[in-house]
Each structure stands twice: as structure tokens, then as C-alpha cells.
Amino acid sequence: MLDFRLPSEYEDLRKTVEEFARDEVAPVIGDYYEREAFPYPIFAKMGQMGLFGLPFPEEFGGMGGDYFALCLTLEELARVDSSVAITLEAATSLGAMPVYRFGTDEQKAEWLPSLTSGEKLGAFGLTEPGSGSDAGALATTARLEGDEWVINGTKAFITNSGTDITGLVTVAAVTGTLPDGRKEISSIIVPSGTPGFTVSKKYSKVGWCASDTRELSFADCRVPAANLLGTRGRGFAQFLRTLDEGRVAIAALSVGLAQGCVDESVKYAHERETFGAKIGTYQAIQFKIAEMETRAHTARLAYYEAASRMLRGEPFKKQAAIAKLVASEAAMDNARDATQIFGGYGFMNEYPVGRFYRDAKILEIGEGTSEVQKMLIARELGL
């Protein structure tokens, strides 16, 4: 018989992160969000808790957990704030995971201990101003000169790329031409502070205002040939694997935001009075919140299945796309409904639902748009 209850080790982790989000993040994150400031003290505490090392082996400073543990953590953080959740997601699944999955023993030894402890953050340099969903249109180049890669190009919308604790950016670049005429794409580790590597000022964003997102440029940026991540020409396959996993993580984050909208709406429905009664007594409000809970619940089951297939080593591309599509739409719909329930207060940034509304839309865009998810699902069905 199927049992959807979380095993005790997962439930204990979930409760620990839930308490941290409620007691440590919720009271202060609004101020960081308003100032568009990066909450370094929060991430220092998360590092001490071992959250950045959850899915990595202990030999690299990790906690010896798995990707599902990371997803549970992202969900609980996003119930309170998505800026904090996306910083952890990007640092772990996009920043450190490629080094762990594809790096040499020397690269793992050099980078993973600081990334898994949260002492340093990693970033994933794939998207460019002229290529988002069409990653095959990559224009950044890297040519091998002696024992160095010389990188030229621009990256856009890169999370965790310009903080005071950013350690590296893994850059996807064209390194040659394949026999069939297609671009040879490879991944190269570029440490922060490398000459020729310029980080722009922070973007002015609609949401995720307490996270770090920037444009990066590379002008004859030289790094050692040994900074090639994995096999030359395997960069495309590497970031496809990275994005498949990342979509499960974004689905979990989206579920957290969707559930946070339910949490806040239920609380408000018990407090707010109109026409002499609590608004929670009105069927219109009850039905709206019931629909919100249904979306969050359904999306949670979707990412649970995708994560379980991933951990069993089974194909999960379709399930990851389904989870990401369903969960991001649930987050957007729930944020809109929660804002409606709160009325004018929902339009104020001091209330969490105001932040949720601003944060939700990017979930239908980042790490593959909803349209890309539908394309992947159709392709997996043989269409």
C-alpha cells in the first residue's frame, strides 16, 4: 500500500526548517526586501545548520542527505520568503551540484567544502541576453591558448553571481565546432575576481528583491585549462541534467509559495471582519481558499513523484517538467487569489502576500518557461 507520510528523518528536517523560517526569517525579511539588500546573517545561520550541504556526501563537507531533503527545505523556506529559498536553490542545485556531478577529484576538493558550508556561493552561467530557452543559441566563446581558456561573452539573469561571498560561476561556452557542424559547448569554472570577469550592478527586479541577480561579462578572461568542468564538449548534456534537477527544486519552491498564500489567507480570514462577520464565514472566501489548498496539495504530489524517480535513478524529465509547470502555475494563481482576499492590504509590501504576488511570476519563467515545460512533456509523449 502506498504511504505518503514522510519518513521521520525527512519530517524532522521539515519541522526544523519550518521553525527557522518562522522564527528567524519571517521577522526580518520584509526589511531586507524593501531595501533590496542581501540578507547575509540569514545565510550565515543556514550555513551553520548545514542547509547548503544537504544533498552532498560528508566527505565534501555535506550532510549526507539527498535531493528530496533539499526540496523539502526549499518548500518550507518559500512558505515565508522566496528570495531566501532561491538563493539556496541556486547555490546548491545550480552552483555546487555541477561541480559534484561532473568535476574532477581536484575540483571537488578545491570547491565543494566552501560551497557545501555556505561560506561561498556558486552560480550557473547559462542564460545570455540573446538566448534564454534556446540554449543552443549560445554566443559566449572560450578558446584554448596553451594551458588557458580565454573566455569572451555576456551572461544575463545570473543568481548569486555578485555577492561578497560568491566563489565561482560555471560558464557555458562554445569551445569549437562538432563534425556535424553543431556548436561544441563546454562548461568552465571561473572564480570570482578573475581579471576580465566583470559583474554588473544588481538588476532592479519586480520580485525576489532580497536575492542577488546580475549580468556578467567576460573580456579575454583567462582561467587555467584545468578549470574545464568534466569532458570537453559535454556542456550541453551537463546543463540539461542540471536543469532537469533544478526544475524539481523550483517546483518545490513554488509549492512553498503556494502554501504560504494559503497559510496567510486562512489566518487573515479568521481576523478580518466585513459587514459584521469574519470574512472566513463567507462561502466565496471559503471556496477560494479551498481551491488554493487544492492547487498546493496537487503540486506537492507532483514534485514528490519527480523527486522520488530521480532518487531511484529512473527517467524523470517528464515528471520534472510536469511538476514545474503545475507548481509554478499554482504559485501564480494562489498569489493572485491571496492578494484578492487581502484587498488593499494585499497590495502592501509589508504583508507577505504582497511579496508573494511579486515573487510568483518569475516561477513561470525561470529554469524553463511554462511553454518549454509543455514542449518537453509533449516530446516525452512522442509528439
Describe this protein with a few key phrases.
10 helices; Butyryl-CoA Dehydrogenase, subunit A, domain 3; alpha+beta; acyl-CoA dehydrogenase activity; 10 strands; flavin adenine dinucleotide binding; Acyl-CoA_DH_CS; 383 residues; AcylCo_DH/oxidase_C; Butyryl-CoA Dehydrogenase, subunit A, domain 2
Q: How is this structure best described in words?
A:
51% of the residues lie in helices and 17% in strands. The chain is built from 10 helices and 10 strands. A 4-stranded mixed sheet has the order 1-4-5-8, with helices on one face. Strands 2-3-7-6 form a 4-stranded antiparallel sheet, covered by helices on one side. It has a two-stranded antiparallel ribbon with strand order 9-10. Helix 3 (67-78) packs antiparallel against helix 4 and helix 7 packs antiparallel against helix 8. It is globular. The model has no long low-confidence stretch (mean pLDDT 95). It comes from Lentzea aerocolonigenes. Residues 9-119 form the Acyl-CoA dehydrogenase/oxidase N-terminal domain. Belongs to the acyl-CoA dehydrogenase family. This is Acyl-CoA dehydrogenase.
Order of helices and strands: HHHHHEEEEEEEEHEEHHHH
**Number of strand elements:** 10
CATH topology of the largest domain: Butyryl-CoA Dehydrogenase, subunit A, domain 3
CATH architecture of the largest domain: Up-down Bundle
Full CATH superfamily name of the largest domain: Butyryl-CoA Dehydrogenase, subunit A, domain 3
Strand residues, percent: 15-25%
Report the mean per-residue pLDDT as an integer. 95
Largest sheet: 4 strands, mixed
Enumerate the spans where pLDDT stays under 50 for 5 or more consecutive residues.
Answer: none
Total count of helical runs of at least 4 residues: 10
What overall geometry do the principal axes of the alpha carbons give? globular
Strand order of the largest sheet: 1-4-5-8
Summing up helix and strand content along with how strands pair, one would put the structural category as: alpha+beta
Q: What percentage of residues falls in helices of 4 or more residues?
A: 40-55%
The first-to-last residue Cα distance is 34 Å
Q: Tell me the radius of gyration.
A: 21 Å
> Domains counted in the coordinates: how many?
3
Give the CATH level 1 class of the largest domain.
Mainly Alpha
Protein name: Acyl-CoA dehydrogenase
Family: Belongs to the acyl-CoA dehydrogenase family.
Domain Acyl-CoA oxidase/dehydrogenase middle: 123-221
Domain Acyl-CoA dehydrogenase/oxidase N-terminal: 9-119
